[in-house]
Amino acid sequence: MATVIGERMATLRELMTVYDSEDMLLMWEAAMVTAYNKS
User: Fold this and answer.
1) 3-class DSSP state for residue 23?
2) 3-state class (DSSP) for residue 1
3) End-to-end alpha-carbon separation of the chain, Å?
4) Which pLDDT does position 30 carry in this prediction?
5) Is the torsion defined by CA of 10, 14, 16, 21 positive or negative?
6) From what superkingdom does this record's organism come (predicted)?
7) Are 21 and 1 spatial neighbours (Cβ–Cβ below 8 Å)?
8) What are the C-alpha distances in Å from 25 to residues 10, 18, 31?
9) What is the pLDDT of residue 38?
10) Across all residues in the chain, what is the average pLDDT?
11) Pick from 1, 9, 16, 27: CA 20 to 30 A from residue 34's CA?
12) Domain segments of the chain: what residues?
């Protein structure tokens, strides 16, 4: 969750109200792929 918030993909409020856990995991995966590709 910290990665998603830190990458400014969603706020904590959005994660608690708008998105479900599957959405959060998809955002996390996108952040990890982006970080991998940058390195």
Assistant:
1) helix
2) coil
3) 22
4) 97
5) negative
6) Bacteria
7) no
8) 12, 14, 10
9) 95
10) 96
11) 16
12) 2-38
Contact (CB, 8 A) for 31 and 9? yes
DSSP summary character for residue 39: -
Q: Are 12 and 5 in contact (CB under 8 A)?
A: yes
CB 23 within 8 A of CB 4: no
Helices (DSSP H) in the chain: which residue ranges?
2-6, 12-17, 21-38
Half-sphere exposure of 35 (CA within 13 A, CB side): 10
Which pLDDT value is given to residue 25?
Answer: 97
What single letter denotes the amino acid at residue 17? Answer: T
> What count of residues does the chain have?
39
